[in-house]
# Entry
Amino acid sequence: MAVNKKPVSFQVNGRTIQATLEPRLHLADFLRDHEHLTGTHIGCEHGVCGACTLEIDGVPARACLTYTVSCEGAEVRTIEGLEHDPVMVQLRAAFTSEHALQCGYCTPGMLVTARDIVLRLPDADEARIRKELSGNLCRCTGYVGIVHAIQKVQQQRKVTT
Amino acid sequence: MKSSSTQGVGARLARKEDDRYLRGQGEFVGDIHRPGMLEVAFARSPVAHARIVSIEKPAGAEDRVFTMEDLRGVQPIRAISGLPGFKPSDLWPLAKDKVRHVGEPVAMCVAATRAEAEDLAAQVFVDYEELPAVVDMVQARTAPSALVHEHWGDNVFLETLYDDDLSAAKASAPIQIRRHIRTARQSMAPMEGRGVLCEWNTRLGQLEMYSSAQMPHINRAGLSECLGLDQGAIRVIAPDVGGGFGYKGILLSEEICLGWLARNLHKPVRWLEDRREQLVASTNCREHDYDITVYAERDGKLIGIDCDATVDSGAYSLYPFSACLEAAQVGSILPGPYKMDHYRCHTWSACTNKPPILPYRGVARTGVCFALELMLDAVAREANIEPFEVRLRNLVQPHEMPFDNITKKHFDSGDYPESVRQAISAINLPAWREKQKAGLPDGRRIGIGLSVYCEQGAHGTSVYAGWGIPMVPGHEQCFARLSPDGVFEVRIGAQSHGQSLETTLAQVANEILGVDPQNVRVIHGDTGLTPYSTGTWGSRCMVMSGGAVATASKEIAVRVKKIAGKIMEVAEQDLVLEHGAVRVAGTDRSMTLAEVAHIWYRKPQLLPADVDPAGLEVTAGYKTLRDSGTFSYACHALVIALDTALGHSEILDYVIVEDGGTLVNPMVVDGQIYGGTAQGIGTALYEEMPYDSEGQPLASTLADYMLPGPTEVPEPRIVHMSTPSPYTEFGQKGIGEGGAIAPPAAIINAINDALAPLGAELTTSPASPRRVLAAIEAARLRQAA
# Structure
């Protein structure tokens, strides 16, 4: 099928990407297949499961619902780009101590959402945390460890700040 | 046995496998790239039942589109059962002559990208001559609209009968209750779909297949049969696998297709299942129908059960579990831990024009628990006693253990009534009964429900030999090696996809050898590196792989002591292993495991000539003392608030009193229970894969197929009991499935408890708002009439 490719330029984890792409290529496929950034997982490709959650211009977004060519000028940050982020370092430790992951497939998306909750809603109670997390599905943990891990990092940040 | 050591059996050790996942560095099939790799998409049937008149490949793309006619030499998947009367089905990896469910693959399309492969699939023209669809499982066998496999003469894979004479009960039982109970068809829905990547290695003459699989050795066996390759010519690697729950315990048509393709194209090829394929084309589970009558004394004591049970097995028998495991299992496990004198159960594995089913977490137990526990609550209402009293009057008592129930299931240990008593106490039944009288201030009704289940895990040869399916578990092996640097490597044939075996098996090694779990490398999921295993299913790994690792570790301990004894010039029996070292008992003389290994491998000149040359590598096998399985169990008790205007229920409190024997890692056990319970809540309230009268699936996205999210699932309170199994290495029992078994029964019992004053009762899962409102309306009409 002949497709008119379109040029696009944007940042991924601080690196400039310039590419000419099929308009139908979504951001998750682009990151995974073109950039080999496979930490952004694909779970449903219709915006329900949250496995592909990443940051676009500092806000959590669904990579599977984002056409890559629509990212002109955007700053995209994936789980790989959050490796040394101080909140992510705390969340990683808390996810392990609270047993917040089993198969690990939903985990990168969960972490991106969890980081947003910790930063945006430092005082969110359990009910609010669950509501904020409701765009991310996990089939293994029953969410107990994930909620505990977020609460733990909220507490740690209160003590240190 | 040491108990609750800091890193061994009983320790809440944090998981070793977490780090890579937390950095997005897990390696799932979809993360693997190969130079020159091509992507595959399948053209799939849009109709449920049709004869294929012709298939036209898109012009100019004939060499990139393949039908069954092209796959010369490939054999169909034939998953037989040895049970008498079983009718086998041939599942061709690409449909030949007929399609029997929506989504059945018809042609395989290859291109540089998945999108281009899908473009090709959309251009494949298939002329279908449509046939009437067989959709309802009971009608399929009693009044068939068509025959799914014409030469059978009916739509029944298998019929089983556990016979008994219930005429005396029928004549005299003071309580006789009959109900029609149904459970919805479900999708298992692991977060990662299936995926297959194949490459032909010319040097080795070997097909290398990465597959998102729970039982790679079984996949290899099936591939060998279908592709006509010897088993050594196939290596199956299950890398990181994003959840299984039974969905990935299967030989896939797509695996056979891609295996053939990689070998014939001499190029790496990959297929990744998307969510729509998973929902509309791939396997389902759980669809049961019960016509059940319970006979009881006035005080709720059971006399007998009479049941006709049908399971919708879908269109084909799948490898290795077959189309009949689920229904036949209903017949053997329905009575569970309850005592009764009479039991009759007739089962049918019905064949329909829907995707085939697979055993999902808990297999038939979730349906059986739902049917029986709903009936026990109905008995309680009839006898006018608390539902928990009916359980206490009928459950096996601890002094009767070990116990053979009416179907000769052998219960190894446990105190079932105590789990009920503790659950009733933890949920605080009297307080809720008091609140129930007034209801909640917002007008919602309160309902309290409970259910009891048992979970048979680590099934052995005697349990499975009778099914006669392509796979029968026996002993489990572990290859273990103390490496030259002192790292202890254990290789097992099962696969860990969330079960945490990389951690818990290291704890087992620590328990025996004293080696630091961080210095234990657990290798799994690769037929090229590991001993044969039937894989990860049926709550078996902690018992079987754990037993094998323990056995191999013990053998390594013997070998280490022999070598260290020679070096240190002391008798082996004076040596003890602890903290990664071998020490002369009562002294401070010791050598680390690394020092022993270093001398063995690198400086054999330091060893005397008469040292045993057996070395520090072993393959050891393990079998439980009795192979009838372990029985873990629990009582789930909960409170719901039911909105009778909207039909919506909210869980207010949830208690689980669970007995999994000795817990190797209680944190991991809790995680399995939380996760299983979340899935059970999905089964109870949300998940349903409906089909219309033409066999079209009506849920094709996760917006239609509702998985429970963080706001639907509460945090259950878990209470542990611990009755070790007398038959396993440390007393551990399989616990992976249990969480998913009890919730539908407990939750719908709670809803029925709330509905009882209205005379309404629900007997179908999930308890969607529509069903709840329909039950209320039916009761209103009944009372008006």
